[in-house]
Amino acid sequence: MKLAAYKINGQKRIGIVLPDSDRRVCDVSHLTNGNVDMVSLIQDRDALSIIKELNERTSRDEPLQKELTDWQAVTPLPPIERPGKIICLAGNYRAHITESGYIAPKEQAIFTPQLFLKPSTTLAGDGAVIELGGQNVHVGWETELAVIIGRRGKNISVENALDYVFGYTILNDLSERGLNSRIENRTQREMDVFCDWLAGKWFDGFAPCGPWIVTKDEVADPHNLEIKFYLNGELRQQGNTRDMIFSIPEQIAYISSIMTLEAGDIISTGTPAGAGLGDKKLSDGDEIISEIEEIGTLMNKVRWTN
After folding, report:
1. What is the per-residue pLDDT for 100?
2. How high is the pLDDT of residue 55?
3. What is the DSSP letter of 271?
């Protein structure tokens, strides 16, 4: 089942997107007890059961299909607008580690996932324009499979970790790789390189996400999904989730040993090779498309305002 958040006629809605090429959406907001909020829906098992049944009926019932709205007629929102946490993994694919100029860890090495957070204000929906301004110099892309947490958990075991997953979506971890590089005669402190890298991921709109959530029952194996990124129609990034260093259960177990995971939290699982590094960066008017097998396609455009 695909669950989407969107606006139509100025009103927020939650809908199910039919599994057909037309990408039509059925409004189920009336089943959310008046609370049009994806996190609340994720926790409402009764409403989800009704919506799942409606999804199955709508797929084969022509009269119901007449009530559907074309996806192109709505304004998509991030599937979860204000998650409690957006937790991202750095360096979870060996090929991305080496293309970033670092030495990939050996298979037998003992190490832990590297984590950072992004604020919820970085989120943007499918079709949203990513606005870049005076602080932006070199913005790169990183297409990633994102995990949506379905229920609260702490110290979750690897064996039980997938029980805490609600579904999956796409997240593009946009990154400003030249933050503060234009400041002349800047006195650098010891940790400035790391701190600039981190803050460079926090700009508004720097986590386009969507276009919807695919519930976990529809993804046979989240560790065998093709990942692609296109810049103005040209394939620039390609990989597969099977190449993750840390699997999704291992990520959940480690993260939950540090912090409590809650319904609606997003874990962005890292990016394969082909990220926007070096001389690869975004320009005004660029169209960026992130695509993950069995999940969908996330499209955004770039606008420089300075």
Report:
1. 79
2. 81
3. -
Q: Are 182 and 264 in contact (CB under 8 A)?
A: no
Q: Amino acid identity, residue 12?
A: K
- DSSP of 192-204: HHHHHHHHTT-ST
Q: What is the pTM of this model?
A: 0.94
The one-letter amino acid code at 294 reads E
71-97 burial by CB neighbour count: b if 16+ within 10 A, else e? beebebbbbbbebbbbbbbbbbbbebb
- For 278, phi then psi, to 5°, come to 60, -125
Structure tokens at 178: 């030249």
Report how many helices (DSSP H) and strands (DSSP E) the chain contains, helices first: 6, 19
Torsion of Cα atoms, 88 then 94 then 96 then 99, to 10°: 150
15 CB-near residues (< 8 Å, 6+ apart): 3, 4, 6, 25, 26, 27, 28, 29, 69, 74
Please report which residue ranges of the chain form alpha helices under DSSP H.
38-42, 45-60, 62-65, 94-99, 192-199, 248-256
Q: Band of the pLDDT at 106, cuts 50, 70, 90?
A: confident
Positive or negative: CA dihedral 211, 215, 220, 224: positive
Q: What is the mean pLDDT of residues 42-54?
A: 88
